[in-house]
Amino acid sequence: MKQKIKIAIAQIETVLGNLDANISKHTEYIERAIDAQCDVIQFPELSLTGYSLKDAVYDVALQDSDSKWDELKKLSKHISIVAGGVELDKRYEIYNSLYYFENGTIHSKHRKVYLPTYGLFEEKRYFSEGNRFKAFDSRLGKLGMLICEDMWHPTSGIILAQDGASLILVSSAGLARGLGEDKQPENVQDWEALNRSLSIYTTSYMSFANRVGSEDGLMFWGGSEVNDPYGRRMGKAAYFEEELLINTIDMLKLKHARINTTLLSDEKLTVIIEELSRIHSDRKQY
Questions:
Q1: Of 15, 158, 184, 269, which residue has the fewest beta carbons closer than 10 angstroms?
Q2: 176-194 residue pLDDT tens
Q3: 237: CATH
Q4: 255 is in which domain, residue-wise?
Q5: How many domains does the chain have?
Q6: Which 3-state string (H, E, C) describes the chain?
C-alpha cells in the first residue's frame, strides 16, 4: 500500500453512444494525469458511452476481451484508471459497470447493484443488476467502487469498509433537479451530505466523480469532490464545467482516524447479519 496517493478526477462531458470519441477524451485526460504524476484517475459513471442510451446499450456493450479496451489497458501500465462503461458478459447479459484498469489489464470491476427505475430513470429496462459489493487489492491498497445510486444505500459503503477498503471510489451521472435559493440544483446538497456521511460512517477516504453536460434534456451537475476519513472536503470541482481535479490522500491520516474513531472495529456484524436475516424471513411470509 502506498502511503500517499495522488488521485485525479476527470469531470467530463461525454458524447452519447460514441465510444471512439469518448475513448479519445479519456486518453487526453489520462495523459494529463500522467504528466501531473498522479497514481490513479477516476471518470464518472458510463463515461465511455454516455448515460441516456436506452436501446443503444446493445451497440456500445463490450466484453472484457474487446480490442476497444486496448488503449486504456496500455495506459494503465503508467497510471491506474477507473472508467464507466456498458459490460456484455459471457451470457450476453448487460451491466452498468465501473472498471479498474491496472498494469495493462482489467484488474477489477463493479456492476451497479441498485438500478433506479422511477421518475426520469429507467435503468432496469436495459441493465441487469449486480449482486455484490466487494473490496479488492490493488497496487494502491485495498479499494472499493460504487456507482451512483449504490451510494444512496448506506449498507453498500459499510460492506466495502468492513471488507477492508480504505478508499471508496464513487462514480456518478448525477442529474440536476430543481433550483434552490442559491441558484444551485436542490439535490446537490443531498449528494454532498451523502458524500460526507459516507466518509464519516466508514472512516474512509471517498472520491466522488460526477459528470457534466446534457443529454435528452437531462443536465448533469458535476461538483466532483474528495473527502477525508473525518468527512472533511479536501478538494471540490466546479459545477457544470469540465475539470481535472487533483488531490493527494495520506494513508497515515486514515490510520489515525480509525484509531481515534473505532466505528469499523466496533461494528457488531453478528447482530447485523442476524437481524437482517430475521427481517428478510419475516418479509417472505407476506
A1: 269
A2: 876 656 667 788 999 999 9
A3: 3.60.110.10
A4: 4-284
A5: 1
A6: CCCEEEEEEEECCCCCCCHHHHHHHHHHHHHHHHHCCCCEEECCCCCCCCCCCHHHHHHHCECCCCHHHHHHHHHCCCCEEEEEEEEECCCCCEEEEEEEEECCEEEEEEECCCCCCCCCCCHHHCCCCCCCCCCEEECCEEEEEEEHHHHHCHHHHHHHHHCCCCEEEEEECCECCCCCCCCCCHHHHHHHHHHHHHHHHHCCEEEEEECEEEECCEEEEECCEEECCCCCEEEECCECCCEEEEEEEEHHHHHHHHHHCCHHHHCCHHHHHHHHHHHHHHHHCC
How confident is the prediction for the chain on average, in pLDDT? 95
pLDDT digits over 22-52, tens only?
A: 999 999 999 999 999 999 999 999 999 999 9
Please say if the pLDDT value at position 118 is more than 90. no
Q: Specify the pTM.
A: 0.95
Q: Tell me the three state secondary structure of residue 108.
A: strand
Collapse the DSSP code of 244 into the 3-class scheme (helix H, G, I; strand E, B; otherwise coil) and give the result.
Answer: strand
Write out pLDDT tens, residues 189-234.
999 999 999 999 999 999 999 999 999 888 999 999 999 999 999 9
